[in-house]
TrEMBL record:
Molecular function (Gene Ontology), one example: hydrolase activity
Name assigned to this protein: Cell wall hydrolase
Leader sequence segment: none
UniProt keyword Chloroplast present: no
All residue ranges annotated as the Cell wall hydrolase SleB domain in the record: 24-133
Family annotation (InterPro entries): Cell_wall_hydrolase_SleB, SleB_dom1
Assigned keywords, A-Z: Hydrolase
Gene3D superfamilies, alphabetized: Cell wall hydrolase SleB, domain 1
Amino acid sequence: MGRVKYTDTDVSLVARMLRAEAEGEGKMGMLMVGNVIVNRTAADCLDFKDLRTISQVIFHVQGGNYSFEAVQKGNVFYNRARTAEKRLAKQTLDFWREHPSKFALWYFNPYGPCPPTWYDQPFSGQFKQHCYYEPKANTCDSVYR
């Protein structure tokens, strides 16, 4: 049993997201991006209430835009899911959690230093170019389970 329910289609979708969002950051960077996707699926708080499937998380719209740049710009659809990314996607869906993305619900590449907060949420750490942010204490207990 994985951290969240998923199908083979979800594995491919997460794999495509890993490749589109973090291919340049290697396997560890892709795992961290996958972890944020899984965390958002498991979270039932803040901007992620009622998102219970991988597809709902990936195609989530906030403020009139898709939450993920790869979906916003469309490049998630231009690359198929390869075997290597599918393995990484399955790893995050099943069990993988590491700092700084362990409890993170947000990440972005600021093309500069990571700000101490992102939408008022605290900085949890950085891996290569991505900054990770987890919810403030006592605002999203479901992500910490």
